[in-house]
Amino acid sequence: MHTPAHTPDLSVPPLLEFRNVSVFNGGRQVLDSISFTVSEGEHLAILGPNGAGKSSLIKTITREFYPVLDGRDVIFRVRGNAIWDVFAMRSGFGVVSNDLQQAFARDITGREVILSGFFSSVGLFNRDVTEAMDRRTDEILAFLEIGHLCTKRMTEMSSGEARRFLIGRALVHDPRTLILDEPTNSLDLHALHTFRQTLMKIAQSGKGIILVTHNLPDIIPEISRVILMKDGRFTGDGKKESLLTDGHIGNLFDVPVHVRKAGEYYYAMEE
């Protein structure tokens, strides 16, 4: 099912508004004058090679990294606010990253993974779980169709199974937007198919999707906007039909490619 293109609600502030945002990490510039606006509920993909700065961009959104304020016209806002509380962001963003999956590679059940999202912890550590938390967890298990796996331990799960529980964890506070960083790394074909179906279901439920990836086939049909990223900069921003072309993708990855469309998905093959 293909959802119509997102129409921004101009009566509310943008979800994200960056202008001339530059970030340094360890003395190295990882973002170079990034400017973009994302509206609430929008579905977009940020596509680029490894080392492009995609993960650094996510860490800037979640305030793990901070921009340089060097006197230029720098805007760095979430929902119109230049200053925001990370804990208050829970209803705004749910984040799923490979770093998070590594942190959860331990002997805890899938259900505990989801419940830990209420406490922003890795595991429960004798936390007091309320009836409301249990009910919300049951809702998420049903929505993601993973209830049959909830007693399985993360150390026993496949990468695809574990990824779905981390998505469940990200959904506990009912965020308006889900951010996924290279979500299909290490997934086999079956897990990739299941993941796509899960992501499409989330997008169709009304939540925004910000998908960060280096793989064209990760871009589900519901995503209409693509941002191309290379060397810490955005090199393109627009409709996916105009950007997922031989020239744009070849320049992005520095290799001659032929981009083809099969159904609603795009694939790149070396020439």
Oligomeric form of this entry? single chain
Give average pLDDT, whole number: 88
Shape: globular
| Total helical elements | 8
The first-to-last residue Cα distance is: 32 Å
* Helical percentage: 25-40%
Strand content: 25-35%
Strand adjacency order, main sheet: 5-6-7-3-8-9
Helix/strand structural class: alpha/beta
N to C succession of SSEs? EEEHEEHHHHEHEEEHHEE
Radius of gyration: 19 Å
Secondary structure tally: strands: 11
Largest sheet: 6 strands, mixed
Which spans of ≥5 residues are poorly predicted at pLDDT below 50?
none
Could you give a short description of this structure?
The protein is of the alpha/beta class. The protein has helices spanning 54-61, 98-103, 110-116, 131-144, 159-170, 189-204, 240-243, 246-253; strands spanning 16-25, 28-38, 43-47, 75-78, 93-96, 177-181, 208-213, 225-230, 233-239, 257-262, 265-270.
